[in-house]
Structure formats: structure tokens, C-alpha cells
Amino acid sequence: MTVLLLVALFVLAIASPAHAQLTFSNLLEVQLGNLPQTDPSNRVDTYEQLDATLAFGQVRAGLRFEADQNSEELYPYSEVTRRWFEFEDPRLRARIGNYTTILGIGLLHRSFSLPAVVLDQPGLRSRYGFMRDVDGVLVDGTFGPIAVRGMQGRPNLGDLSPGVANEFDLPRYLGSMYGGQVVGTVWRESRVGVHYLRFSPDGVHQNELGSGSVTLDPLHMAGITSVALPIYVEYARQNPSFADWFEFRAPPGTPMGVYGGVNLLWGNLGLSAEWKDYTQFALGINDPPSLVREHSFILPNRSTHVLEARDEEGYQFETSYRFDQWGSLVANTSRADGKVSASLPPRRFEERYGELNFEPTRYPKGHFAVFYDYSRDDWVGIHSRDITGGRVTHLVPLDLTAEADVEGMRVHRGTVHFDEQYFSLSLTHARLGSASVIWFRTFDPAEIQDELPRNYVGGVISAPLGQHHVLTLFGGQRREGLACTAGTCYRVDGFEGFEMRLTSRF
Description:
Layout: H1 2-15, E1 20-34, E2 44-56, E3 59-70, E4 77-88, E5 92-99, E6 102-103, E7 109-110, E8 112-120, E9 127-132, E10 134-143, E11 146-155, H2 162-167, E12 176-187, E13 190-200, E14 207-216, H3 218-221, E15 231-238, E16 256-266, E17 269-279, H4 298-302, E18 311-323, E19 327-338, E20 347-358, E21 366-377, E22 382-396, E23 400-413, E24 416-429, E25 433-442, E26 454-465, E27 469-478, E28 481-485, E29 488-492, E30 495-505
Antiparallel strand pairs: 1-2, 1-30, 2-3, 3-4, 4-5, 5-10, 6-7, 8-9, 10-11, 11-12, 12-13, 13-14, 14-15, 15-16, 16-17, 17-18, 18-19, 19-20, 20-21, 21-22, 22-23, 23-24, 24-25, 25-26, 26-27, 27-30, 28-29
């Protein structure tokens, strides 16, 4: 398959150079260092990721090349990890090879990538770009008010480095999927959808899942345009029948998932309410909405709740208001309840968050934001967590923008109470780039290896090199922990040393 795609790329490139468009993006990352307090401290890691796309009329083809090498010669690899061929016209798009897609809102299936996110295989130190994709065939068609999607292939869960897969003879793409959806526009942009998936994780056991969804705005349907009230509801379960979609409670033990969301948009006011109920619905190939706020501040983002789709139900409410010429106010509350097993007591996550952004139009040189966050997460043994902080941004001489971020956290975990602090200061120039200093301090006894407190200090410099390259340099200590991007959370290993990242696009 890879050889055929390379031949196709070459043929298209030479067939009509005047009409073919070839684009490249490349990520090169070099590290000199290691995990904190780990030998050798001067380990060298080199990771390369190259994406190439060739467009020729209605036809496109592409591939991704990844390579990872290190001075300890552990799990090195150098191979094509993604290749695809695609045809598209106004009504039909067909793709063969690797692809990402979604059914409904993700209850049954969601495959996706996180650009520029490079992960390290836990415990084995083999780096790879995050990609949860499918190797097979995807077809999308639009026929008047009807949108159809069909898919077939083998899924990749995105949790295995090619180097580790080669070393231990582990397949990165495992099992098989067949599915699709039909979504019809009924009246005034309201839509009704039917979604289906047949999934075999091992080639032997087979799961058949289906869902129904409704999207509508009753105010828009009534001819009201000054206020928007979009509503989305989807119900999914295993071994469904048509009658099941009218009952939102499946028999005990049946894998099922329900999601409902409603938003109110009225001038400067925004309101949203969401509800979830998941039972045995962690399929590995799906991505149900977590209903947990993704924060822009560092400490709340590191402390977020990770969805447990095996058994979790809950809600999220958020209110935002934009004050003309002054700024905005955001308030959010969320809660989730579930059980890990019948022998353990129920667990709860709850969070209350408030943020004030002060951006006066009469003073455009600066603005600031303050927040408060309270949370409890029984899944990780957190009885209470209080976080406060703020961010100040201001124009300074030499066309520079200065930004300071100060945050503090108080945690009660089991019988232990401890504090954490975060501070960053950055200077940014529109043409020259940015420079930042970052400092973490924690009294968490789970992280202390030598003495209290544990400090992590690092510096980052990022600068454009011409029109096609961006160079980013890091030096110091990077703290391990949870990171979340675009609603997806993943674990980041700690690092101590120097790192260079060069991103290029042509």
C-alpha cells in the first residue's frame, strides 16, 4: 500500500507540474537530557515528523513519515506511519488509507489527531506523534438534504509507539470496524441522524452499536432570529433496535450512552447546559463528551477530571456575559458521579469555576483576568482543591507585550494537605517572537524525591526564521503531569535538559 502511494505521488507530481500543488510540514525535535534524576542525564533524543500532501485537481494524496532515534539505541524506528489517497467533488468524497472521522458527537466513534503533540511511550521512552486514526476506506456523500457517511477499516488507539510496536511485535492497528451514518435536514436546519457501528476489537468478539440524534433550534424554527437556542440529543446503546431509541434507559448491564446539550445565545449573554449518562461505554475507539471545562490557566488545566465512561453520569452548566467596553464574566459548574466496581463506594467529581476578564476599551494597552476554581475528584483521591490566580498583559516599550501569570493551589488528598504555585513571565514581539520564564513549586510528597519543596524552572524562546520556519528552544526542568489540548487529556513525562523544536511549512 505504501509503495503504491509513493508511486502515485510521483506520477501526479510529474504529470502536470503547472497544476499540481505539493505542500510539506515538518517537525524536528531534539532533546539533550532525560527524566529528572535519571541516568544518563545527557541522553540525546531526535524525533522527526514529515507530512506531505499532493493535490491535483479533484485528487489528493499524502503520507506521514516518522523517525525516532536516541543515544541509548532503545526502540528506534524510521517508517511511513500514515498514507492516504482521496478523491473529492461537490457531492462525494472518498478516501482510502489512513483517515480520521466522527459518528454523531463521538459516542460511537471519534478518530482524531493532535497536531504538534509528541508523546513518550510510558516507561519505555519511545516518542511518537499522537494520532488515533483508522486504516481503511471512508466515503462521505451529500444528496440534497441527506448527508451519508460510510466507513470501514482497522482502528489505531493512538497509545503505541511504532518503535515499541516493532520491538515487541505488537500491532498498532487491531480489529475491524464497519459503520456509518445518515443525517437528514428536516425543516429550518433541524436534523435527524441515525448512526451505526460494528466493532470487533480482536477479530473474534463483535460489538454492534447504534445511536439516534436530533439537532434543532425551536426558536429558529418559529422564525425568531434575535435569540438562538440550539439543542442536540444523542442516545446510543449496544445491540439496538428501532424501538430502543425511544427509551433512554437500557436494561441493566447493557452498554449505553446518552448526551444532551442546549445553548442559549442572546446578545452578550451565553448559557449552556449539558447532561451525560455513560454505562460500560469506554470502547477505546469512541470519545464521549466529558462535560468538564477546558481551562486556559495552567494549574486548573493540569488538575482536570478525566472521563470514566465505564460508569459516569453528570452535568455541566456555564454562563458567560460580555460587558460592552469593559470585559467579560464566566461562571461554570460541573458534576459527575459513578462507580468503578460494586465493591467500592460511589465516586464524585465536582467543580465550580469563575473568571473575570477586565479589558477596558478606553485602555487598550493592557488587560487582566482573575479566576477561582474549586474541585473535588474522588477518582484520584482529591477531597478538595482550591486554585486562585490571575494573568496581566500589558504593552511595554520596544513594541513588546509583557504577560505575567500567577497561580496558587491548596490540595487536600487523603490525610495530606499541600500547596503548589505557578509563575510565568513572557515578552512577545509581533515579528521577533517570544521569550518566557516558567516556575513551578510543589510541596506534594508524591513528587518529592530529595527535599521539600520541589522546584521546576525553565525558559522558552520561540522565534520565526523567515516565512517558513519557527524555532523553539527550551532549557531547564519540565514538570510531568496531565496536559489537555482540544478536549483531549494525555500524560506528559518530566524532562530536565535542553530541547530544540523546529517547525517548517512549505
